[in-house]
Amino acid sequence: MAEFTIADALKLRAGKNFHISDVDPTSTPGFDGDKDELKKEFSKFDDELYDLQERLFANGRAHGDSAPSVLLILQGMDTSGKGGAIRHVFSTFDPQGTYTTGFGKPTEEELEHDFLWRIRKHDPQPGQIVAFDRSHYEDVLIQRVHEWVDEDEIDRRIEAIREYEAELAAKGVRIIKVMLHISQDFQKENLIERTEREDKFWKYDPSDVEERQYWDDYMRAYEDAIRRTDAFHAPWYVIPSDNKRYARTALKALMVDLLRHLDLAWPPADFDPETERERIKNS
Amino acid sequence: MAEFTIADALKLRAGKNFHISDVDPTSTPGFDGDKDELKKEFSKFDDELYDLQERLFANGRAHGDSAPSVLLILQGMDTSGKGGAIRHVFSTFDPQGTYTTGFGKPTEEELEHDFLWRIRKHDPQPGQIVAFDRSHYEDVLIQRVHEWVDEDEIDRRIEAIREYEAELAAKGVRIIKVMLHISQDFQKENLIERTEREDKFWKYDPSDVEERQYWDDYMRAYEDAIRRTDAFHAPWYVIPSDNKRYARTALKALMVDLLRHLDLAWPPADFDPETERERIKNS
To answer: What is the mean pLDDT of residues B31-44?
Structure first.
């Protein structure tokens, strides 16, 4: 168990009968080694991730619209480490084939449109790996917790999300949805750090403290959204994330698994290698 | 000289009197150490690049439109290593604050618009670092070499580029333009490799061989475009790039220099740290 495997990561799947109280944010399921051992596990997928992403990118270039793409949707409470997780996983990729975007408070223009309007602008292109730092799920989380919309509207949105994700999947987008699950105590530590370090001030917002009062409501909203939107083509994983390195390792393992399943060969030569070699030599 | 400094990188500046024949693509100006020493130099800026980029991103978040941004324009002949250079420099950054895009053969829709139309869509946002793999310069390089447009049109485009870049600079975009300069022999080796390795086939295009016939014309077009568009706010650097690791190290050094000159402090707290700490503790 000082080895963390892809099979361990896959056990973090949260399906239709998911209970968020079953997940201990301080735990590290599948791994009970020490810090140094975790550091090793954290890097072991890097070369394969790089290779798999390049194959995907190459297929996008060679096969255009028929090539698949990947969408990683990351959710989690404030300070759960979404940005850092994306950074660590995506630093193994070629930035030319990836795209990362965040969804904060909607702008006035965005509020005039359906909640999926601003999301659809960022649909992955063939061969691309896209990460969403927060997403359309905010529209059934923060908005539900604060009762900014009624439950009928939540039902409508959940249905719209299911349709949207099914539509993406039908177009060849492989979706993976991940909640980085931290404890309320860990968030407290992280928020305090943001008031102590000059290089963290910019991340702190006094309203984060008010949001903490709604913790249990958020957990209920997450649980319900996860149960109702988990699907074979858009699975949810809930990663215990008080241990950041564990969370990032698990995310890498899930990405490797997803990319392996694309089963991508290198695009074949559409030229005769020998003839071309001669032409180049004579040029 | 086993140490490569920022001052060495800055000497690669190509200004109004630039002669491309003065640059030996096989050379490594400012560095004459061995492979292991170069490997060390290659990594030495990484931590600082990470820190500087995070400051820039934080300023974008905190100050919105008044925050600067960065645009790296990379040009070079086929196989000059533009993609790899971007990958290695940008892997030190947080992908959330960066954006990379390439400009290939224009689509039919793009051809119906002015040549800058497709470029302007990718203007950097405040706090962002953007890389262009090829750019609007293709419109005064490949198009000039093949005489697809006449010289009057080239003059018009050069002027349009100068205006466009000045306009970006006035909006707070810090521009850096880099040509990765390889030799014709090195390109030959690289092209042959693409016909020999299954994982490289997708990068090979038989028309690359035809383009090689126009090498001297390309060099003339590069020289002229560089001379006429170099500016204090949009400087050109020409990096000898037969040695890939040298080229990437030089590019990192230039990026460090640019980011340092932004002289970015962490955004100050817009809250009272002590009060907030108490609120968090009691929450």
So the answer is: 96
Query: Which residues of chain A does B134 touch, with a Cβ-Cβ cutoff of 8 Å?
Result: none
The answer to whether A76 and A180 have CB atoms below 8 angstroms apart is: yes
Strand pairing class (A69-76; A129-133): parallel
Q: Report DSSP state, residue B234.
A: B
Interchain proximity B95–A91, CB inside 8 Å: yes
Helix (H, G, I), strand (E, B) or coil at B14: strand
What is the distance between the alpha carbons of residues A125 and A122, in angstroms, rounded to a whole number? 9
Tokens of B76: 């070079």
Exposure string (b/e) for B94-115, b if CB count within 10 Å is 16 or more? bbbbbbbbebeebeeeeeeeeb
N-term to C-term CA, chain A: 57
Residue from A171, A56, A69 nearest A130 by CA: A69
Distance CA B7, CA A6 (A): 47
Residues contacting residue A170 through CB under 8 Å, at least 6 positions apart: none
For the cut 90, the answer to whether the pLDDT of residue A1 exceeds it is no
Q: pLDDT tens digits for B146-165?
A: 999 999 999 999 999 999 99
How close is the nearest chain B Cα to the Cα of A152, in Å? 32
From the list A212, A116, A131, the residue with the least C-alpha distance to A166 is A116
- Say if residue A265 is exposed, middle or buried (CB neighbours under 10 Å; 0-12, 13-18, 19+): exposed
Residues A8/A253, Cβ–Cβ less than 8 Å:
yes
Instruction: Give the residue from B256, B263, B181, B240 showing the smallest Cα distance to B7.
Output: B256
Q: Is the CB of B195 less than 8 angstroms away from the CB of A62? A: no
Close Cβ partners of A57 (under 8 Å, ≥ 6 residues apart): A94, A96, A97, A127, A128
Q: Give the rounded distance of the alpha carbon of A62 from its chain centre.
A: 26
Rg of chain A over Cα atoms, rounded to whole angstroms, equals 21
Antiparallel, parallel or unpaired: β A69-76 and A173-181: parallel
Q: How far is CA A44 from each of CA A3, A8, A252, B244, rounded to the nearest angstrom?
A: 10, 15, 9, 26
- Token pair for residue B136? 């609007």
Q: Does any CB of chain B come closer than 8 Å to the CB of residue A216?
A: no
pLDDT at B94: 93
CA distance B56 to B50: 10
Taking the C-alpha atoms of residue B83 and residue B100, their distance in angstroms, rounded to an integer, is 10
- A&B contacts, CB < 8 Å: 124
For residue A280, pLDDT over 80 is answered with yes
The answer to whether residue B1 scores a pLDDT higher than 80 is: no
Give me the domains of chain B, ranges plus CATH numbers: 6-281 (3.40.50.300)
Strands B98-102 and B236-240: unpaired
What number of other Cβ atoms are within 10 A of residue B146's Cβ? Answer: 11
Tell me the backbone φ, ψ of residue B183, rounded to 5 degrees. Answer: -90, 160
Q: Which two tokens stand for residue B201?
A: 């086939």
Q: Give the integer Cα–Cα distance in Å for A143 and A225.
A: 12
